[in-house]
Design a protein that fits this description.
With 128 residues, the chain is mostly beta strands. The protein has a single domain (3-114), classed as Beta Barrel (OB fold (Dihydrolipoamide Acetyltransferase, E2P)), CATH 2.40.50.140. 0% of the residues lie in helices and 39% in strands.
Amino acid sequence: MQNTPIDTNRLGPLWCSMPPEPRKSPDGAQRKDREGNLQWVTSVTVVPKEGRRVENIDVVVSGLQPQGITAGAEVKIINLESNKWAVDGRSGESYRADEITPVNGPAAPGGSAAPASGARGKASGGES
């Protein structure tokens, strides 16, 4: 299925609800993308500019673990895409991005929460 770009400028503020953690496979290993880069998942609360519907999404990035992102911090997402998927009778939507950064610059060393184990939500069901 095809990825659909999302214009984050049309969204309201984006807030980290759970800091980046390793994206895990069902056997507990950290997932990698097609190029072999490690994957990280960050839960983000999307507050729309119009309307009252707030949504939480899990955004996957590949490469180095995003730094300086803590729960409650406003974040910027670079090249956000959604992907509708269907596998073995299950379906959903996953989200990927090139990068997630804190809006106010990186936090001081030691300021981010330690990664927890296990991926959550919509992004964990997508393909690698």
